[in-house]
Design a protein that fits this description.
By secondary structure, the chain is α/β, with parallel strands linked by helices. It is built from 7 helices and 7 strands; from the N terminus they run βαβαβαβαβαβαβα. The longest helix has 29 residues. The chain is globular, with a radius of gyration of 20 Å.
Length: about 280
């Protein structure tokens, strides 16, 4: 059952990766609906600019560091007394053939894209359950978390993990009757700065990166922001921004279904016939 929060007005919302792209657009959409917004980002200068532009509080945080995320939550609680919504949005990308990816590449993507979400959920969910009458957790994944693509092996691995984590968390929260809902954003190509995320990589850039090539056009981040805000109010588990990608998701599901059907046929022949 959907666990949305209804009218967002008056809610206290925290957005990680909030200085640009999807995070900034979500923060703007939430602010425009009458919420109190706190944004965080690893880039201090961009964070200060975005916070000033939105007229909100900005707190620097590296989501791969649990202590940073805990400090973000503590400062928000000190300032506002409660937290209703967390948007675990911060993310990075590396586009390269699998054989060119290093251990450092995988560690970097996993630390930010997966551990950033884990740290956010671990830290904020108990606070939201304790202080909010109706709360919501949003984790940003990607279409690459539903349908993998070449040259995105490490990125896809982290985004599939975020989708799975969110689905399992939704089941757990529903089973225990929690008043907090959860959703996962699965955007396709969006006009953002993730294509330049290696600027923040520890040790400096490890290789070229570009927006994933594809036939779909770049969606403006503002559209994603409004879509996410709507989904929080309704309580959507899957937050889809590119409906034209349905065919590629169906293609993957059909391959999986075909494998199950083939296995059922083989196993059926292998089962002993009972008397």
């Amino acid at each position: 059952m959907a666990r949305g929060i209804g009218d967002l007005a008056g809610a206290v919302c925290v957005v990680t990766g909030g200085a640009s792209g999807i995070g900034l657009a979500v923060a703007r959409a939430l602010r425009d609906r009458g919420t109190t917004v706190v944004i965080s980002d690893v880039e201090q200068s961009a964070l200060l600019d975005a916070a000033a532009d939105l007229g909100v509080l900005g707190i620097r945080a590296d989501v791969s560091r649990c202590e940073d995320v805990e400090r973000l939550a503590e400062e928000t609680l000190t300032r506002h007394g409660r937290i209703d919504v967390i948007i675990n949005n911060a993310g990075v990308a590396r586009v390269a053939p699998f054989e060119e990816l290093t251990d450092e590449d995988f560690h970097w993507l996993v630390d930010v894209n997966l551990w950033g979400v884990v740290n956010g959920v671990r830290t904020f969910l108990p606070i939201i359950e304790r202080t909010s009458r109706a709360g919501f957790v949003v984790n940003t994944a990607s279409m690459a978390g539903l349908r993998a693509a070449p040259r995105l092996t490490a990125y896809a691995a982290t985004k599939f993990a975020v989708v799975g984590l969110t689905e399992a968390l939704d089941e757990e929260l529903a089973a225990r009757g929690s008043h907090v809902g959860v959703g996962v954003v699965v955007p396709g190509q969006v006009r953002s700065r993730i294509g330049a995320s290696e600027r923040n990589r520890p040790g400096g850039p490890g290789g070229p990166i570009a927006q994933q090539a594809g036939s779909q056009s770049l969606l403006e981040a503002e559209v994603v922001g409004e879509t996410v805000a709507d989904a929080i109010e309704r309580g959507d588990l899957y937050i889809v921004t590119h409906p034209e990608r349905l065919g590629s998701v169906r293609q993957r599901h059909r391959r999986i279904e075909a494998a199950f059907e083939a296995a059922d046929s083989v196993m059926g022949r292998a089962r002993p016939i009972s008397d």
